[in-house]
């Protein structure tokens, strides 16, 4: 059973000087199969839309590390772990810079990047970057087009949404085309996964908030839709994030992970430790404990 973990990019642990590098290095040595980041630009005091399940924003998000920097740091101090995101709010970034950043991280990691992308839900964050939130769907489609071009052609030109790339030499290419996974449960988001993505980014919660059949049924539909779109349904990957609530016991997390993996059989799985630790030491201790417990199956 190969399990990954979130890098300490949120909360007090994220503010530890050198903490991301130390955790990445030691977690890989302990057996972590992947190292993952999330993306949070702002924690508004009075958000236009509150974080799901909260009246405002969780305190853990008051401190947030840049996801690209975290992945680059992890790439520099590890050799085998998958470096993933679940998720980066892709449409909040300038597309050409975004493509160059992903490519650079993939090259730096020798082809270990798994970019998991989403469109976010926070109007405050879209206001902060000056991008209309109403355009996020078409901007994601445009970005996927640009990434295909950026990663496959030496001469790149592109007419995008609100930007234009003149024909340019782009010699830096990824070690292998990074498998773009997309998040979402809505109808439009799932259709985009089936028709365009290399994989899906479902979420499992501990304690369990919904039956596993919600994930397995959705995945079966995604693969059927992919086949109808002329794609290989078996090639649609799954990168599962396990969200554990505050104060959840490691034994319960491990038990739930073993259960969901037995029915969903994802290609990649990582446990998000954001709500469970407040220091790099705690992050490492819990990582070791969960690796030990899940190994027992």
Automatic annotation (TrEMBL):
It holds the Pfam family Bac_luciferase. Keywords: Flavoprotein, FMN, Monooxygenase, Oxidoreductase. InterPro entries: Lucif-like_OxRdtase_Rv2161c, Luciferase-like_dom, Luciferase-like_sf, SsuD_RutA_monooxygenase. The keyword Nucleus does not apply. The keyword Flavoprotein applies. Residues 3-261 form the Luciferase-like domain. It comes from the Bacteria. GO terms for molecular function: alkanesulfonate monooxygenase activity. GO terms for biological process: alkanesulfonate catabolic process. This is Probable F420-dependent oxidoreductase, Rv2161c family. It comes from Amycolatopsis xylanica. The lineage of its organism: Bacteria, Bacillati, Actinomycetota, Actinomycetes, Pseudonocardiales.
């Amino acid at each position: 059973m190969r399990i990954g973990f979130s890098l300490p990019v949120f909360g007090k642990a994220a503010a530890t000087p050198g903490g991301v590098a130390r955790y990445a290095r030691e977690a890989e040595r302990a057996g972590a199969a992947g190292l993952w980041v999330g993306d949070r630009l702002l924690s508004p005091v009075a958000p236009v839309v509150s974080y799901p399940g909260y009246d405002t924003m969780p305190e853990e998000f008051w401190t947030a590390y840049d996801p690209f920097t975290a992945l680059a740091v992890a790439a520099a101090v590890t050799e085998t772990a998958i470096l993933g995101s679940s998720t980066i709010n892709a449409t909040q970034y300038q597309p050409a810079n975004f493509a160059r950043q992903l490519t650079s991280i993939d090259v730096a990691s020798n082809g270990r990047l798994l970019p998991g992308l989403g469109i976010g839900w926070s109007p405050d964050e879209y206001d902060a970057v000056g991008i209309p939130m109403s355009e996020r769907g078409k901007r994601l489609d445009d970005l996927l087009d640009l990434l295909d071009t950026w990663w496959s052609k030496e001469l790149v030109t592109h007419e995008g949404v609100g930007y234009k790339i003149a024909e340019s030499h782009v010699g830096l290419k990824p070690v292998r085309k990074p498998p773009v996974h997309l998040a979402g449960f809505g109808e439009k988001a799932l259709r985009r996964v089936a028709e365009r993505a290399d994989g899906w980014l479902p979420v499992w919660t501990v304690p369990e908030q919904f039956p596993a059949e919600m994930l397995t049924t959705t995945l079966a539909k995604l693969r059927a839709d992919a086949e109808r779109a002329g794609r290989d349904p078996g090639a649609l990957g799954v990168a599962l994030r396990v969200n554990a609530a505050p104060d959840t016991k490691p034994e319960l997390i491990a038990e739930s992970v073993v259960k969901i993996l037995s029915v969903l059989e994802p290609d990649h799985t990582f446990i998000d430790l954001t709500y469970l630790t407040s220091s790099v030491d705690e992050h490492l201790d819990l990582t070791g404990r969960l690796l030990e417990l899940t190994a027992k199956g």
